[in-house]
Design goal:
This protein is an alpha/beta fold. Helix content is 33%, strand content 22%. It is built from 23 helices and 30 strands. Helix 2 runs parallel beside helix 3.
């Protein structure tokens, strides 16, 4: 086949039949993507670069910048430099010398990060990539993990399989960015709807519900991040192989099939042998073999030269996979069914309106579930359409109507659970779960948590430390309430979320006016009827903390204690957090114990809880109990600090999946919110790039649009953005946040 250029020669790779034990009539093929000029991702590089040039995103002669440790880098080196673009590759010290030599010889500039980031090598590479982008005008970042042109590139591969074979019954592929397997299988499913799609991952990769192990040695598959290009609905089954098992399979592929390939191909080969041995007669299986073995001569193939090492290596190799329930931690060759054709449903009753709400839906898909969102108004949720979630419009405050809508939506499908990411719908979700007969917190317990006055009464009955309090329904009752609790006091609605409309009052007149104001409110931001009752509480002094709790198997686990910073009185808006809090162990233990007693008092039994506390001279006292994940971005601090993804654990708990609340690391993380010092309109936030370049700063995010009205904080909606830093200890984090804020300037112009 004649081609005018090396770029046009990409694709058209050989398809070879493999010889292996299998029932009569079973055919097993390998699609040798390793026969491209460099490897399989030559296809992606050509698709991404040519489409970017066509759309004008990539200007003639503009630089291309990408994070890659292997074949994507080589593909961009081939295509980008051939088309006249400078190519910058960000990688890490694990890059093999052969790939490094190829990249430099092809004319790339290679940037090697010196150390692992707070999460992984990948996060460190992305930090350096962001720095490069700011200094390279018109630079184009292909973003292989989220660029839809990645999976689109593999439609050609699917067409080649159809042309060569006619039909395909099973396709097996490794999963890293998700492009090759999902792009190929999506196109094949259009022709063969009964196609079985099998993904191959590494033990220690987070892609399919496993804990992250950044020290895993496999390359080319697995990930410490969640790529947008994985469509979990396409994949029926996933296999995990350990490093030793993958490397042993790669050497077996060379010995048995004479294919000298990388560990991605070896892993696919090992899974193919198992599937072929158990296939029905007439089944046709295809495995996608991504890259050649020359990059692995000093790693995967080095063991083969040492008979003693080879024998030791094989002693850690499983000969058959162990079937596991999806989400169960694995350590050696295992597999789980995650069929997209009969996924259990996870029902969501409304959502919060931040990115976390939409992230919960995609997290459910990643965990092998089919999310269904019940809403009054879908337009309330930005980004909902992109999730691909099934949406049912109904009155979510009508218990009978909601249950009827849920039963109709479920049909004959299994309902794994019911949940919500909105505090305003905790009771509705629990009541629906009870009506459908699936496990959840008792609706009565959640009703107690949603009613702050009821919470106070329960804590009082169980002897849990808390402020003195009084409930009022009329401004005329305030004087008597103040006489009970003392001055200064705190006035708050019994049924709002967070610090909304919570006010410190130094005298009876101020307290009376705040009560009068709150009693005029007839409905909340979701249109739900207000309780028209107000709490007047004792104002306690002492530092503020929160206990991040998770209830499972009859036990309340304390994930950690967060140190909280709040705005100046009379308001109580969170302006910063540090996790974990700097506390003597006995104080942290006392707060965790107080939080456990409070959860037992209100009757919560499962899932996340966020207990706000003050540390007074008499010990920890409970300010509020929230039967949900913490707000204020606290879960985004816990993840890099401990490795625990609390949102993922919430979804697991709701669906009855195994939990993993064991910390994988011990670091510190902090957040500080951007706040206007004066009233006016936001003109700009200056110094964002400089602040983001500060060591240990993970991200600087401005959420407020230029021109919006701003004021010193009275409620959470007044915050303008945030800075997150991650380090080895609290001093490092605090220093980083101080340095970042020294670079920032919030410019406010008069209205």
């Amino acid at each position: 086949m004649r081609h005018e250029s090396i770029v046009e020669a990409i694709g058209h790779t050989p398809l070879v039949r493999l010889r292996m034990p299998a029932p009569e009539g079973v055919e097993v093929y390998a699609k040798l993507e390793l026969a491209n000029a460099f490897a399989m991702k030559d296809r992606v590089a050509r698709q991404v670069v040519t489409e970017a040039r066509r759309s004008g995103t990539l200007k003639p002669g503009a630089p291309i910048v990408e994070s890659s440790s292997g074949t994507m880098a080589l593909g961009l080196a081939l295509v980008g430099t051939h088309m006249g673009h400078p190519v910058h590759i960000v990688t890490d010290p694990r890059i093999d010398p052969i790939t490094l030599a190829k990249l430099r010889t092809l004319g790339c500039e290679v940037h090697v990060v010196p150390a692992m980031g707070e999460q992984s090598w990948q996060s460190a590479r992305l930090d350096l990539l962001a720095e490069l982008m700011t200094g390279l005008p018109d630079a184009f970042w292909p973003q292989q993990y989220s660029n839809p042109q990645n999976p689109a590139a593999y439609r050609g591969l699917a067409e080649e399989l159809i042309a060569d074979l006619g039909t395909v019954d099973v396709v097996v592929g490794s999963v890293g960015s998700g492009g090759s397997l999902c792009g190929t299988s999506r196109a094949l499913l259009e022709r063969f709807p009964a196609l079985k799609v099998v993904g191959v991952d590494a033990v220690g990769s987070v892609l399919f519900g496993q804990p992250d192990v950044p020290t895993r040695r496999q390359s080319g598959l697995g990930n410490s991040l969640y790529p947008d290009n994985i469509d979990y609905r396409l994949i029926d089954e996933v296999h995990w192989l350990s490093d030793d098992e993958a490397f042993d399979a790669t050497r077996a592929l060379a010995r048995e099939q004479k294919i000298f390939a990388g560990n991605t191909s070896g892993s696919v080969y090992r899974v193919l042998t198992h599937l072929a041995a158990n296939a029905a007669p007439g089944t046709r299986l295809v495995g996608i073999m991504p890259d050649r073995g020359d990059r692995y001569v000093d790693t995967v193939y080095a063991v083969e030269a040492d008979a003693t090492a080879a024998t030791k290596d094989r002693s850690a190799v499983a000969t058959e996979p162990v079937p596991v329930r999806y989400g169960e931690p694995v350590h050696s060759w295992s597999y789980a069914q995650i069929s997209h054709r009969d996924r259990p449903l996870l029902l969501f009753v409304e959502s919060n309106t931040t990115g976390t709400g939409m992230l919960a839906l995609t997290t459910a898909v990643r965990l092998g579930l089919e999310p269904v969102l019940f809403v009054v108004d879908p337009d309330r949720y930005q980004g909902l359409e992109e999730t691909g979630c099934r949406v049912v419009v109904c009155d979510t405050d009508d218990p009978q109507g909601l249950r009827k809508a849920a039963e109709e939506a479920a049909g004959d499908c299994e309902v794994a659970g019911v949940t919500t990411t909105s505090e305003y719908y905790l009771v509705q979700a629990a009541a629906l779960a009870e009506g459908l007969g699936v496990a959840a917190n008792p609706a009565a317990a959640l009703a107690v948590c949603r009613d702050k006055s009821a919470t106070r009464r329960m804590l009082l009955a169980h002897g849990v430390g808390q402020p003195r309090f009084a409930e009022v329904r009329d401004p005329a009752e305030v004087a008597a309430a103040v006489a009970t609790v003392g001055l200064p006091c705190v006035v708050k609605p019994v049924d709002e979320s967070g610090s909304h409309e919570v006010l410190w009052c130094g005298d009876v007149a101020t307290a009376t006016e705040q009560v009068r104001k709150l009693l005029t409110v007839t409905c909340n931001v979701r249109g739900q009827a207000s309780a028209r009752r107000v709490l007047v509480e004792e104002f306690l002094t002492g530092p503020e903390f929160s206990a991040e709790m998770f209830l499972a198997d009859g036990e309340a686990h304390c994930v950690g204690i967060t140190q909280r910073t709040v705005s100046e009185l009379p308001y109580f808006v969170e302006t910063g957090h540090l996790f974990p809090a700097v506390l003597p162990p006995e104080r942290a233990t006392a707060m965790a114990d107080t939080a456990r007693r409070s959860l037992e008092a209100v009757g919560l039994t499962r899932g996340p809880a966020h207990v706000e506390l003050r540390l007074t001279a008499d010990g920890p006292t409970v300010i509020e109990i929230n039967a949900r994940l913490a707000g204020g971005m606290i879960p985004e601090l816990i993840r890099p600090a401990t490795g625990i993804d609390l949102l993922g654990q919430q979804i697991r708990a709701a669906a009855g999946l195994p939990l993993n609340l064991t910390p994988e690391r011990s670091r510190s993380a902090g957040i500080r919110f951007l706040i206007a010092a004066e009233e006016g309109r936001l003109a700009s936030v200056e110094g964002v790039e400089r602040a983001g370049a500060v060591a240990e700063v993970e991200r600087v995010t401005v959420t407020a649009a230029v021109g919006r009205p701003v004021r010193p904080v009275r409620e959470a909606y007044d915050r303008l953005g945030h800075v997150i830093a991650v380090g080895e200890g609290p001093e490092q984090v605090t220093t980083a946040l101080d340095a970042a804020f020294a670079e920032l300037a919030i410019v406010v112009e008069p209205k």
